[in-house]
């Protein structure tokens, strides 16, 4: 995708988790506007959609990017798959374009940065956006569950894959 | 192409690693409530606050409040063109020529900036 420096395409990338979702708002491949996690309790999908609608209302993104859970290699649970469908339906209602990116494509996009593991991709993103470095979770041990903050990096990775430009920086 | 957001105060604050309460203290507010409202585009910061933000984030107001700036710029240019049109229809003298030159400069400088952005 060609990208002129003056043009802005606001992208809202979301990555659902067991406790809600992580999000990142970008206007350019180097322009991170907002990021964070939203917690959903009770009816998780309903709560997540409420939070997401508020984010769409505030940032009015041109494109809503999220993981493609329909691919064969996707290992997301049934609830997340359903949430992805509901997000797509909501985006249609709110007239926001959507782009579903399979995990495979994200890994391919980050292949130049080194091993395409989650922590490695997160470290590459943290080096590109120093403001995110404080959110970088400690190395996950086999007995630990995934840190919720990792979803922020997953969301940024999705957004960067959408832009099709990943800067490789020496860290 | 997306239009600019009303303001980028939240982005700058988070890049600086400051909390809303800390920014509120810097601005001389009691709590972070006002800061939150500015960041969620629910309230427009007054001129003194905008200057304070400029100082805190070391960024120009037109960058911090990019959406507002764009809107004001469009309106000013439209009004400049209108006034130029009115002046062209009236009596011509040296003063009118000077005014027209100033008004044309307004429109052309904005056009140049927009072309450069594209």
Brief rundown of the structure:
The complex is a heterodimer of chains A (about 170) and B (about 120). With about 170 residues, chain A is α/β, with parallel strands linked by helices. Chain A has helices spanning about 45-60, 80-95, 105-110, 120-130, 150-165, and strands at about 10-15, 20-30, 30-40, 65, 95-100.
Description:
- The complex is a heterodimer of chains A (171) and B (118).
- Mean pLDDT of chain A is 89; it is low at 1-5.
- Chain A is built from five helices and five strands, in the order βββαβαβααα.
- Chain A has one domain: Nucleotidyltransferase, domain 5 (2-Layer Sandwich), CATH 3.30.420.10.
- By secondary structure, chain A is an alpha/beta fold.
- Chain B is mostly helical and 118 residues long.
- In chain B, α6 runs antiparallel to α7.
- The longest helix of chain B is centred in the middle third of the chain and has 24 residues, at 66-89.
- Chains A and B meet through β3 of A and α1 of B.
Key words describing this protein structure:
heterodimer, A: 171 residues, alpha/beta, Nucleotidyltransferase, domain 5, 5-stranded mixed β-sheet, 5 helices, 37% helix, disordered N terminus, B: 118 residues, mainly alpha, 434 Repressor (Amino-terminal Domain), 73% helix, elongated
């Amino acid at each position: 995708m060609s990208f002129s420096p003056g043009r802005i395409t606001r992208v809202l990338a979301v990555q659902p988790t067991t406790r809600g979702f992580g999000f990142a708002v970008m206007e350019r491949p180097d322009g991170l506007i907002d990021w964070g996690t939203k917690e959903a309790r009770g009816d998780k999908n309903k709560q997540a959609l409420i939070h997401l609608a508020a984010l769409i209302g505030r940032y009015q993104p041109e494109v809503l990017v999220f993981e493609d859970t329909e691919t064969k290699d996707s290992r997301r649970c049934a609830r997340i798959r359903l949430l992805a469908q509901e997000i797509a339906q909501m985006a249609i209602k709110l007239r926001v374009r959507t782009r579903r990116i399979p995990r495979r494509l994200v890994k391919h996009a980050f292949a130049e940065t080194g091993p395409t593991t989650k922590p490695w991709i997160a470290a590459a993103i943290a080096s590109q956006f120093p403001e995110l470095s404080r959110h970088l979770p400690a190395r996950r041990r086999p007995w630990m569950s995934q840190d919720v903050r990792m979803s922020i990096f997953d969301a940024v990775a999705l957004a960067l894959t959408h832009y099709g430009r990943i800067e490789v920086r020496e860290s | 192409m997306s239009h600019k957001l009303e303001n980028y105060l939240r982005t700058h604050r988070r890049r600086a690693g400051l909390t809303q309460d800390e920014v509120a203290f810097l601005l001389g507010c009691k709590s972070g409530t006002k800061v939150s409202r500015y960041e969620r585009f629910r309230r427009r910061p007054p001129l003194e606050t905008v200057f304070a933000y400029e100082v805190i984030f070391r960024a120009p107001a037109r960058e911090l409040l990019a959406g507002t700036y764009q809107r004001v710029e469009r309106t000013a240019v439209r009004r400049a063109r209108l006034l130029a049109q009115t002046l062209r229809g009236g009596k011509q003298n040296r003063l009118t020529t000077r005014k027209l030159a100033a008004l044309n400069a307004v429109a052309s400088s904005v056009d140049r900036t927009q072309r450069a952005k594209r």
